[in-house]
Known about the structure:
- The chain is α+β, with helices and mostly antiparallel strands.
- The protein contains 24 helices and 26 strands.
- β20 and β21 form a beta hairpin.
Amino acid sequence: MKARIAHRIRGRARFKTPYSFTKNEYRGLSFNLQNLKGVNSCKISPLSGNIVLEYDERELPNICSFILNFNLNDLKDFENEDLYLPDEDGGIFEIIRDSFYGRLAFLLLLPLPLRNLITLGKSLKFIKRGLASLMAKDLSVEVLDGTAIAISLATNELSTASSIMFLLNLGEKLEDWTLKKSKRDLAHSLELNVDKVFVLENGKKILKALKEVCEGDVVEVETGSVIPVDGEVLEGIGMVNQASFTGESLAVPKNPGKSVFAGTVLEEGNLHILTRKKYNESRINHIIDLIEDSEKNKALAQKKAESTADALVKFSFIGAGLAFLLTGSFIRAKAFLMVDYSCALKLTIPIAVMSGMSQASDYDILVKGGKFMENLAESDTIVFDKTGTLTKSQPKVEDIITFEGFDKNEALRIAACLEEHFPHSIANAVVEAAKKKGLVHEEMHTEPKYIVAHGISSSIDGKPALIGSYHFIFEDKKVPIDREKEKIINDLKKTHSLLYLAIDSKLIAVICIDDPLRDDAKETIDELRNLGFKKIVMLTGDAENSAAHVAKELNLDYYKSQVLPEEKASYIMDLKNKGYKIVMIGDGINDSVALSNAHVGISMQKGADIAKEISDITIGGDDLKSLVYLVRISRGLKERIKIDYRQIISFNSALILLGFLGILSNTSSAFLHNSSTVLSAMKNMQKYKI
Length: 690
């Protein structure tokens, strides 16, 4: 493929090619470049042939070589239905730019007779809509639009009719774009990034595309793999990290008969899973159905703009009728019909909302409807879950309690030496803690034996060495424990998850595992408080001491521990009944009811699928501070809409008055009305200051 670098800065380059890419070439080239080592992002313009890449600077020679050696002929039959290409149909800017290019071409390149003929043909659609509304006894904006266009045609002002239709068509294109973008963002947010899986058929293991896996297929999942389907364990024992599904920070055991869920991770063991639900089908379709319910998710400002525009229609006709009766002038009466509020209100307000949603997506935030940004802008109370929301949901060694005179570092060194052979979340935490302390743990034991969901047994200097759960150490292996140690352990259980280390049938150490706070949690809470939130709350199912520690660290207004899912929902409802405007942020199944009861429900991307389904907004990155940006964008949107209303109503009212007084001609009024609408739309494309 021919290409040259047209512009380059460190980590970013624009490649110029002499091609206009077909759809298959565009999609195939995008797919290959997105999956090329070192490429962080890829944007391609099918028409101009430009390729813009952001990349690891060290990989530039390989990237250039790949592009130059790439054969476009290989992409003639390229198909990938699941490929996510957010810029395939362009964005707001491209839609408006291309519409205006088309408009200029229409005005400058086509002869007047042909323009008039095209205008007459296009007008039929709008006149038919108006007549249909009248037949349904609905005096809507469609009636006013059709009347304005029809009168313009009747008075030989075809250019005015053409301008009105241009703006109305532009509004429809922008609304279609919003829906398509929402669908794509949604599908992308739920991707598992798994293409193929092993399926067992007739005693053989075959590789099968995930989208072809059906209910009843048996899928094999190995250690370290993402579980790709919802199903039931048929064979095997494993430890599954369900933090994304339940909010539990520690892996849980799974054996035959237990349910497993797509998106969770098998940390240990090997499982044969009977598929109960086809990959992503019901999950994605359910959410997309919600998004397509545009009336439900539209911002109140959008609905108000539409209803206001509809409500003003009758006054436009009344004004025109009174003007004709009082003055006998058809031109003065026409002033009320040539300038209306509908174009501006129904175009600029949705663009303002779309700009907010689009800017939110720049921060990897999926907003399922404008009304949720509007609710967020008005919120004064925010309620957090703890695990996976305020905390990382990544285990960490917090403390080591030793017995029998053992040194803490020595106990940690032995534990790391045993655990490093079987990496899972707890083992990784132990090994990482030893690494940070610079503890060298050379092999000192015999070959360790691992019992899934229980622990490890080995021997050191001929003495049995055990590490694992309470059940494994004290019940299976019968390690004795006295009342004093039991009391210490019971106290530790209130605030930590515990790992037990025993040598020669003696408990020598208890390793305390915690789930640490997110690095940006404190800063986020402080900024939310500065933004005016009156009440910042945490509700968690964790133990009292753990919850109290987090609440103190973050300086929260209120917290409650050991809360059941229904209690979270009840607390949200109590606050709502007291007049608070509530935002709920969580990531587990236990948060789902509370998320649905709040004015705005926000889920984390790594959270449970049901939480993401029910929530109104999903934070895509592992970054809590995105919430602060979202609040600022939402408040910027609210302020912009207020300004738009004032400007649109006052300016267009002035045009109607000037037209009625004869100071402005109908053509001039229509021109100024259309121009102001375009300028308002362009202004609303700008990003909000955050």
